[in-house]
Structures are given as structure tokens and as C-alpha cells.
Amino acid sequence: MRGLELVFFAILLVLATLQVAISHGEQPLSRIAVHNTRLRLSENADIRASPSILGLKGQNSEWVTLEYASPNPSNDDWIGVFSPADFSASTCNPDEGSKQSPPFLCTAPIKYQYANYSSPGYRKEGKGSLRLQLINQRSDFSFVLFSGGLANVVAVSNKVAFTNPNAPVYPRLAQGKMWNEMTVTWTSGYGINEAEPFVEWGRKDGDLMRSPAGTLTFNRNSMCGAPARTVGWRDPGFIHTSFLKELWPNSVYTYKLGHKLFNGTYVWSQVYQFRASPYPGQSSVQRVVIFGDMGKDEADGSNEYNNYQRGSLNTTKQLIEDLKNIDIVFHIGDICYANGYLSQWDQFTAQVEPIASTVPYMIASGNHERDWPGTGSFYGNSDSGGECGVLAETMFYVPAENRAKFWYSTDYGMFRFCIADTEHDWREGTEQYKFIEHCLASADRQKQPWLIFLAHRVLGYSSGTWYAEEGSFEEPMGRESLQKLWQKYKVDIAMYGHVHNYERTCPIYQNICTSKEKFYYKGTLNGTIHVVAGGGGASLADFTPINTTWSYFKDHDYGFVKLTAFDHSNLLFEYKKSRDGKVYDSFKISRDYRDILACTVDSCPSMTLAS
Ligand SMILES: [Fe+2]
Question: What's the 424 CA to ligand 1 centre distance in angstroms?
Fold first, then answer.
């Protein structure tokens, strides 16, 4: 009975945390009345899951079928998925949790669904079945039926587990600090005291070699607050990064993840492949996809905390379908919206695996990765759910000097990308401002004519409702100090997320369009084109009804941007909707590199509104 009491108190706490989650979008279980919570385990209730062993053929994602029965069924009955399967309070950290008396539940359900979701007769018959998709994430699972009132546990299922829960999974590529270096980051359950992690790789049809990987992890105390430190905490396992060096430009490589256990046996992932990046300045067709705010969603229709990225599965699907025509991806902040429910990072890395294991998946930091009061973020809000950047800085590699300061530059052939970190101060006089100027100034435009500035919050221009109401049409203090850099170094395009829609401006400087052309730019732009590409998947944001002269195209829908550099003189910009992958806005730039050389002190044109 003691165990049941633990569950009971645990559920109370979970339900309390649901209150936080309901403030965002759809949460079907938001109607749970916490004050009505009662314990009513029933001998006549039952829930069973099958199969109980998953991944027999090496899969890291599989469907399970649940069969369940309750003597007092209702339309509010629901099923929670718990992992680890043993979710009693015995594993709780007594220092964490709410101010209520222990025992606490250590983990929130990783996802949940109504009992009648796929069994319309459940309420009458008291029987139902449900199919759910599970991913391999280092632990076993159990399923809990809540019936006869939203907060009554009536049955707990058998345990379900993958054959090897520790298996190396979800590789994500990222460009290294050198142009000819690819980094591979993955997750496993093997610490450095159990196995040596490495990547076995080589050119297609060539010899294979092995490169060692570093291993990182963190603990509950690395989190800055709840829910990441409390019910949202879940052991992250181990995150490994290997550096594959001296790659041949554009060559195709195969690779697989390995762990050599200390008993001499090996554990392997499946085989993946990627194409090495071009030499900076190299002329070849280069295709770049950019978007922000994608998040993740459950393919089985179930819900989880912060479940408001309904567009994300479509975006992911379009990118996978077009993957042969994509060379590198930039996801510019608001990566997975785990917001302190750590299990969701596994889910996100599983969702993007087909993309991130094949092309470099470069990320920027957003408010949902970083912001937490009193932790050095520029904004003192709680958008990261207590993660305060630790998850983003560990789960993905970026070639930053200091991964906690999330700004970096990276080259891809004829492109130079300068990625800013809007969750740290960017204004003149800061460390980041110096970096941005250096990144822009050090691009050799004869070799790298396409200079792109990326950041999460809109430092340029946006007609998003909130910015318009503020009267700023930008993140407050966004462009004041940066626009002279964009202008001086002739940045072609500046792109942002954060506002969940699509918008493109004219080439612009200090609120004034520097060209009236909309679709085909020849020669210098005289300004920078600003683009919001925040429609990756999170619930859409409205535009102000105010029309500005600088806003050339607005779309209240999910989508992403694709840039294609054909050569040093021709760039194609396309905006595609996630629903069909078709192009809904586009423009071209054709020009010579001489048009875009940075001016020197005496040759700079006047840069005031009057000019
Ligand atoms: Fe954001």
C-alpha cells in the first residue's frame, strides 16, 4: 500500500505541473481537476502492452499496442507513458520537487493520450486499445491507466523495453571549426567507464578508419530550475562527439557509431552517410535550408508538455523528401521546445535523425533553449523551463569558441554565415558585437560573395503583432547597433525566427527601402534583405494589420527558406510551405563581387536617412 501512496502523491504533483503546460496551445488534459484527485486502484482494471521487447531487428523506434479495461470508464480517462518504467518515489532526489511534503514523483509522463482516442466505444464498453510509438531512449517504459476521474491511477502495465536501451542513437552532424572537418554527435547509455565511443568512417568504397569521441553528460544540479530540475528531469545518458578531419571536398563518406565495451565486444549503430563540405570559395551548386522554431510533434497523435508545434512533422517530412537537394540546414533557435521536459530532446533528435545524420544540422540558440532568470541570459524570463542552455549546448555541437556563448561563424563554399546569439547582449561594446563585426569583416567576398546573418529573435524587421504593438517592428534594441555593420559589410540577407510566420522585406537600411525591385536584384542591393522564417512548426503568430512600405511578402503559415548559390554571381532565394513543399515566394540576386566589397573610411557612402 505504501507504494500506491507514493504513486498517488506522485500523480498529484504531475497534475500540478500540468498547470504550467496548459498555458501553451492545445493540452487536452488541461481539464484535469487537481483538487479532485483520489486513489482508487481497481482489481477489475487492467492495462497490457505488447510486444514487451522492442527493437529485435535493431530498430530504435517501434509501435506498441495497449489493451486496457476499466470498470468505471469515462471520456476523461487517459493513459500516461512513464520512462523509466519504475516511476515510484524511491528514486527521487529529496532536495528537489515542490514545497509539498514528500514523497514526490520524479518524472512526469513522457507523453499521454485519452483512453478513447482510437476506441470510440471505450466509455460504454470499458475496454479500449491504443497504438503508441516509442523511441529508444536508454530506459524501459510502463503505461498507466487513469480512470474513474481524471486523477485516479487504476492500473499499471507490464514493462516494455528495447533490446539494447543503451544503443548509440540519433547522430547529428555539424560543421567543425575547420572547413574540412565534420563533427558527429550522438546519444547513448554508455559512460566512459563502460565503453570507448568512436566513429568508424571512410570514403565510400575506401578504407575505413576510427576516430575517438569525447563524452559529455550532466546531472540534475546542472539544471537551473523547474521543471528541468524536478518532474521534467530525465537522465540524459551520454552525449558523444567525434571530429572527422581532413575530409575531401564534396566526397561522400559512410560512417557508423561504435562503442567498444571493456569486455571486448562492440555495439554498433546502423550505417549512415554524408557529403563533405566544399572548400571555402569553391564554385559548385550549394543549397542551404534555413528556418526557426520547429519543435517536434508525436507521430502517434499523443500529447506531451508544451505540445504546440503542430507544423513540425510537415516541415520535417518536406526536408526529408527533398534531402537529396539540400546540403546544409540551419535551425535558428527554438529547437525542440522541451522547455524543461528533457525526454523531448530524445524525441526531437529522433524526429530529425534522417536530416541531421545526413547533412550538417547547425543550430542557433533561442529563448526556449536559454532564458532563465539570474543565469546570464540577456532576458530574465523562464522560457527554457530551467534548462538554461545546457541541453542545447550539449546535445548539439556548434563550432563556437565557447559553447555557452552561442555565436559562431561557419563557411559553406561560397557562403559565409555569421550566427548571432540573441539570448546574450549583442549591442556595441559587447564581446558578441566584436565577434559579429569580425565575422562580417573577414569574409573574402570575391571567394565568398554570399554573406548571411542569422539570429533567433528578430534583430531586423518584423510585422509580428507584438513588435508592432511595441512600435518597434523589431526586437527592442535589435538593429540599432547592428545595422551599420550590415550596411558597411554589405550583408545580403539577415534571417530570423522567433516570430512564427514568414516575412520578407525590401533591401533596407534605417527603415528606408534601398531598392524598389521585388524579385530580381542586379548589382548592389544598397541595403540588406531581412527575412523572418519562424514558421518551422510552432503555433503561428499573427501580423499587424498595419502595412509598411518595407514589407514585401507575408505568409501566416508553416514553411522554410532555401537558398541556392549557383555560382559566385547568382543566388536564388525560395520560401516553401511545409504543407506541400512548393515555392510561394522567391527572388534572385545577380551581381559581381566588385559590387559588394566593403567600403573604406573615405569611400563609404553617406549612411543617413537624408541620403
Ligand atoms: Fe523564440
Answer: 13
Ligand 1 centre and the CA of 488: distance in Å? Answer: 28
If you measure from the C-alpha of residue 61 to the centroid of ligand 1, how many angstroms do you get, rounded to a whole number?
29
Distance from the alpha carbon of residue 524 to the mean position of ligand 1, in angstroms? 32
Exposure of 534 in the CB half-sphere (CA atoms within 13 A): 29
Distance of CA 293 from the midpoint of ligand 1 (Å): 7
Which residue ranges form the domains of the chain, and what is each CATH number? 2-162 (2.60.40.10), 169-272 (2.60.40.380), 283-596 (3.60.21.10)
Ligand 1 is an ion; residues with CB less than 5 A from it: 334, 366-367, 498
Q: Report the candidate in 542, 591, 544, 538 with the shortest Cα–Cα distance to residue 560.
A: 538
Q: How far apart are CA 507 and CA 511, in angstroms?
A: 10
The rounded Å distance from CA 457 to ligand 1 centre is 6
The answer to whether 289 touches 561, Cβ cutoff 8 Å, is: yes
Query: Which residue, 225, 598, 561, is CA-closest to 380?
Result: 225
Whether the model pTM is above 0.70: yes
How high is the mean pLDDT in each 10-residue block of the chain (611 residues)? 38 36 45 43 89 96 97 91 75 46 58 94 96 98 84 87 98 98 98 97 95 97 92 94 98 98 97 98 97 96 88 98 98 97 97 98 98 96 97 98 97 98 98 98 96 98 97 96 95 98 97 96 95 98 97 98 98 98 98 82 59 48
- C-alpha 320 to ligand 1 mean position (Å): 24
